[in-house]
């Protein structure tokens, strides 16, 4: 069995952003030369997320509105965590959207369902954060 590991780095211009990272993951899969196996993609920061869904801007707007209703950024004083930082909402949003995804690799390709793409979700941006890509298989 082969193993491949790579870190992808992101620095968003805004506090919250969704980035389609499927092309980067496909490139990692090509670099790994693994034909059958599994790809793990996970956010290495507790205020960022990796998830799978449709690459449709209206849906991304819906995510933003829904997450803001569930865990509004302001007022900052509503959260016990906020003190030295003002990012409690980002921690909660990450919990909702998830830490990682696992995708099957079949015949050297990501084995997706219709419309599936991998996204990096940033909830406390404007600084460098990383995503781990780990691929195992043959």
Describe the protein's architecture and organization.
The protein has 138 residues and is α+β, with helices and mostly antiparallel strands. The chain has a single domain (2-137), classed as Sandwich (Jelly Rolls). Helix content is 25%, strand content 38%. The protein has 3 helices and 8 strands. The protein has helices at 22-32, 57-70, 88-97, and strands at 2-10, 17-20, 37-43, 48-54, 100-106, 109-110, 116-122, 129-137. The strands form 2 sheets. A 5-stranded antiparallel beta sheet has the order 1-8-3-5-6, with helices on one face. A 3-stranded antiparallel beta sheet has the order 2-7-4. Strand 5 (100-106) and strand 6 form a beta hairpin.
What characteristics describe this protein?
Jelly Rolls, 138 residues, 3 helices, three-stranded antiparallel sheet, 8 strands, alpha+beta
What is the gist of this entry?
The chain is of the alpha+beta class and 138 residues long. The chain is 25% helix and 38% strand. A five-stranded antiparallel sheet has the order 1-8-3-5-6, with helices on one face. It has a three-stranded antiparallel sheet with strand order 2-7-4.
């Amino acid at each position: 069995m082969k193993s491949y590991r790579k870190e992808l780095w992101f620095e968003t211009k805004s506090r919250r952003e969704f980035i389609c990272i499927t092309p980067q993951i496909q490139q990692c899969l090509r670099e790994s030369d693994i034909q059958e196996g599994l790809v793990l993609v996970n956010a290495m920061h507790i205020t960022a997320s990796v998830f799978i869904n449709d690459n449709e801007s209206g849906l991304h707007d819906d995510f933003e509105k829904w997450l803001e209703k569930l865990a509004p950024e302001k007022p900052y004083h509503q959260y016990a965590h906020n003190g030295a930082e003002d990012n409690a909402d980002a921690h909660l949003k990450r919990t909702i959207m998830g830490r990682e995804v696992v995708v099957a690799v079949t015949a050297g390709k990501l084995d997706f369902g219709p419309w599936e793409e991998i996204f990096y979700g940033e909830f406390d941006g404007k600084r460098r954060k990383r995503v781990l890509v780990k691929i195992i298989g043959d």
